[in-house]
Write a structure and sequence with these properties.
By secondary structure, the chain is mainly β. The protein contains no helices and six strands. The mean pLDDT is 90.
Length: 78
């Protein structure tokens, strides 16, 4: 029997750590007693470190999404 491999995730603290093609998750904090909730997951298309935004191609919807880093945390999925 094969076991499912769990993805390794790493917190991104600066947009300069991201590159086009990286797979990331955007997570929203729902409370101090709860885990963060994944609100978007997708492939990085473009970053704008000066304004704190990263654009991804959302895996679920297939649409381009702008992620504001002031509103959520970013995690690289490997």
């Amino acid at each position: 029997m094969l076991k499912d491999a769990k993805a390794h995730v790493t917190r991104i603290r600066a947009l300069g750590q991201l590159h086009r093609g990286d797979e990331i998750e955007a997570r929203l904090k729902v409370g101090h007693d709860y885990d963060d909730v994944v609100i978007h997951r997708g492939i990085v298309r473009e970053t704008a470190p000066g304004i704190g935004v990263v654009w991804i191609m959302d895996r679920q919807s297939g649409l381009r999404k702008a992620i504001d880093t002031d509103e959520c945390t970013l995690w690289r999925v490997a």
